[in-house]
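Hi all, long-time lurker, first post. I run a small reading group and we've been trying to get comfortable going from sequence to structure in the token notation. Rather than ask abstract questions, I figured I'd post a concrete chain and ask someone more experienced to write out its structure so we can walk through it together at our next meeting. Sequence below, copied exactly:
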Amino acid sequence: MSGSGAGVWVFRNGVMQLEQPAAVSRKALVYVPTNEVVRSVEALERRLGTLGWERYYENRTIVQLHKRDGGADLITIPRDFASLRSTHMYDVVVKNRDHFKVVDA
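-- Answer (accepted) --
Happy to help. Here is the structure in token form:
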């Protein structure tokens, strides 16, 4: 047998088999008007700023943005962009339809 050795050995029907873990699907947030993949918190804040969002609250781990017009919506994102998950991305998309989309990276 060959391979990287990653996976789980399973005993099935009297035979040992190496099962490979399912591939983890990485997601990317795309700014639709320019088809640009957002790669940093600063870039995301810049794009959201043009749509009327401004920084509302921040601490060591998160940044929150709200609409300048006083709407009740908040977007919370991790300060460390590497910690941005699909749930954060979809939050941005839902609150900014036609401007952002989530794609498989």
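A couple of things your group might point at:
The first helix runs from residue 41 to 50.
The first strand starts at residue 8 and ends at 12.
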